[in-house]
Amino acid sequence: LFLGSCTGLVAFGVFCGLIYSNWGYIRLFSLLLLGCETDKKNREILDGDGGQTARYLEQWETINMKDFIKQGFTLQWKDDLSINNRQRQLKIKKFRGTEEAAREYKVMLEEELKENIVIPIGKEQIKWYNPTFMIKKANGKWRKIPDTKTLNKQIADFHFKNHDSNEVKQTIRLGDWGTSLDLSSAFRHLIVQTESQPYLAFEFQNNYYTYRAMPFGIKHSPIYFATAMEPIMQLIRMKTENRITNYVDDIFFPHQSKEQLKTMTQKVIETLIYFGFIMITEKNEAEPNQTVIFLTQD
């Protein structure tokens, strides 16, 4: 495994190349730097995939990220006006969809409850309702989407640059072999701080739920996920001296030697699992090939 002490990776190093605004950097990391106490519920180790990484704190401590993972995803508000606006979003927004969509929704919700991705919440605890809807993907499968557009308007803006497909393309050299890895429900590996959970609530069939694991759709979710992934990527690059890069939850690993790439890819998989990440086996291209297909995020 590409593991070991990595004390040189301090909190500032995590954000090098990611956060370009000093104000955004200060706002996002203020809770960690001030030692903000994590809620007791977020320290509990629960079964299921939701917030999976919080069960691997000893491993994250090796790359100086234990506090970040334990703290979890926290909503950062714009200003006092947004704080006042939060009091106005208490109108229940019920799920609307076809009978087929409702059936699929129920199945998906039961799975999310089982995995502790979402949890029940009392109506009196809710501070913000987010409508949810279902979309049918090209492959016939359904996806549940929280509509967080209104919530996002109340959240602070951070200037953030994530790796994009162009950067991935620039790592490719003539004669390279490549493998790609896909993390399962990537954002949901991170827990949501309990204080933020009442703002992520939704309704289905007169029952109320909220996200315990970081949902897709919140504009800060990619920032938190990239912050968690970057020190792991740096660690792997340091140990392999290779050009591994990630585009959101997809990890691309090029190498000139097909056989060395096979060995390195397996070690990368083991490293990611070590930190609590779950892989999507059917989406992984762990066998080296020389054809790269770039897809838009689905």
TrEMBL record:
Assigned keywords, A-Z: Membrane, Transmembrane, Transmembrane helix
InterPro entries to which the protein is assigned, alphabetical: DNA/RNA_pol_sf (IPR043502), Hepadnavirus_pol/RT (IPR052055), Rev_trsase/Diguanyl_cyclase (IPR043128), RT_dom (IPR000477)
Domain Reverse transcriptase: 115-298
Cited Pfam families: RVT_1 (PF00078)
Keyword Transmembrane helix: yes
Coiled-coil spans in chain: none
Gene3D superfamilies in UniProt: 3.30.70.270, HIV Type 1 Reverse Transcriptase, subunit A, domain 1
Transmembrane region(s): 12-34
Entry protein name: Reverse transcriptase domain-containing protein
Organism: Streblomastix strix
